[in-house]
Amino acid sequence: MTDMPPAILPPASFQQRLLDWFDEHGRHDLPWQHDRSPYRVWVSEIMLQQTQVATVIPYFERFMTRFPDVASLAAADQDEVLHLWTGLGYYARGRNLHKAARVVVEEHGGAFPVHSLEAMAALPGIGRSTAGAIIAQSTGRRAVILDGNVKRVLTRLHAVEGWPGRPAVERRLWALAEHYTPDERLVDFTQAMMDLGATLCRRGQPACDRCPFEAACVAHARGEEKRFPESKPKKAVPTRATTMLLLQDRDGCVLLEQRPSSGLWGGLWSLPQFDDVEALQAWLDVHAPGSELAPAWTPFTHVFSHFRLEITPQPARIGRLDSVGEARCWYDPCDPASIGLAAPVKALLASLAPFSLTTTAGP
């Protein structure tokens, strides 16, 4: 098949095709499309990073019920914020959301600096594309976006070679996004670009026969839709192992400890973790002498973007623990506290019933 040059469409033609499609087929009734305040748009944009709309909707609605404005979010404890984020994944987003709320309140008088792309992009957890989306969606002012959906559309439309994470490729995509972004109907245009990538120009099975750019798409003309965008060069995904201590007291409460603010599960509450059962036993000998181990539960694997974590739950009954320390607490599975929990820990606690020392089954 002959190679085709990546012809650039006139902006007016691109915009007309896209907006005509959006008017008929786009998404017009998402929760954050009502009362499009910078706060609501911001929360939705952060939640939608690497997460599908259907998953985000119930989290967004619960979040808005508890934190209806940026002041209430800024005043909250991080634990409560992460508790509402539990299960949504990528917890750095939740931590940065909380930090950004406090910056908006303390440094911007409680008003998002939507007058300035640079000021918006400087807030924790907000980059250039997210800042553009917030400005365009909440104010209608011209701002350019380049999220994953938009990258996929533009990469296929022009058969842009190379992984979009490479600086040279990303610069090319930003230039194309700038070229096509209109001066009017910015709210609809930015939503339309995201909708096109999410509903038609999908990663695995693009619906080219329903796309308004079918006749203009270079990747489609070549029959190479699935080759674009090119994937990030793969590295071997390592596997790590950890033993999690399920230490229960006589009332069935479980000892939890808060993770450091950065790193894996930063700021969340987790079961104490050890390299192996010997290290776990050594800790018990020092901190909870007289505790007795039950048989370990069946190991299971939790997959992160850059490694796999093999978790072995190790139940134990406490002997004596004089003090839990500042970063630890007793958690009652039957009356759970509103704290942020790492996803596999939440699953373990939900399945936990007071066990005997002969318990062998896990969740």
TrEMBL record:
Its cofactor is [4Fe-4S] cluster. GO terms for molecular function: 4 iron, 4 sulfur cluster binding; 8-oxo-7,8-dihydroguanine DNA N-glycosylase activity; adenine/guanine mispair binding; metal ion binding; oxidized purine DNA binding; purine-specific mismatch base pair DNA N-glycosylase activity. It catalyses: Hydrolyzes free adenine bases from 7,8-dihydro-8-oxoguanine:adenine mismatched double-stranded DNA, leaving an apurinic site. It comes from the Bacteria. Residues 47-199 form the HhH-GPD domain. Its EC number is 3.2.2.31. Gene3D superfamilies: Helix-hairpin-Helix base-excision DNA repair enzymes (C-terminal), Hypothetical protein, domain 2, Nucleoside Triphosphate Pyrophosphohydrolase. Binds 1 [4Fe-4S] cluster. This is Adenine DNA glycosylase.
